[in-house]
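U., I forgot to send this yesterday:
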Amino acid sequence: MRLAFMGTPVFAAVALQALIDAGHEIAAVYAQPARPAGRGQKPQPSPVESLARQHGLPVFTPVSLKAPEEQAAFAALNLDAAVVAAYGLILPRAVLAAPKHGCFNIHGSLLPRWRGAAPIQRAILAGDAETGITIMQMEAGLDTGPMLLKGVLPITAETTGGSLHDALADLGARLMVQYLADPAAYPPEVQPEAGVTYAAKIDKAELKLDWSLPAVQLDRVIRTFAPKPGAWAEINGERVKVLAAVPVPGSGVPGTALDDAVTIATGEGALRLTHLQRPGKGPVAAADLLRGWPVPAGTLLH
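Result:
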């Protein structure tokens, strides 16, 4: 097919590479504009833009697709379809209607559960037993279009935001290639009204551990944001990232260290912190960190 690809982060770049490998003609790649990053805050192209340029593909980075000239340029591509994955811009009706077969989205949840911006994180935070990918036909609503193809992945006690992101990116790329190889094999299915939930964008305040919550829930928070951006707590006056932990029996004032091995009392049960990262340093096992940086029993974490 003659395609446009529209996406920005690593999640989308995995799909773009799969479409290239499958032999599709990528007529244009759309990504969000370069953003300042790193110590020098120099504009850095997104993973999708970087990959597209490596393959010599035409890249467009408009700040919006609302302008008539942008929509006309998109229509002039004479596309069979557009594939969208974590693009980050709203597609106006004129853009959605331009390709012969429409626009297809790789969405990181089992729709209609977790429509919206942060489906990967919300699935772990909610304690879902599974999630997956939905290939859907796009329409004007927020992730409301007909479903075409699904793939399921389990969420286990070891699943992190990072591991689930990577697994879903691979699955989404594979399913998109599978769908485009034989669209007629996957008739559209209207999303049911029952079971609709919305995956709100992650707020930075959610990264701070609230020790009044149950240990099981705090474990989900830690796994959701590992390895990046990392949930955190104030320990010994420092903002320390907590990258892994294990719920264990125990009780006490929430936020209090119950022993010298950073077992912390929570609102229900306790949480043994197993991997930590101090500011400006690399991640380490808690046992190694504590040798030169003790957190004695009775220490109150904030």
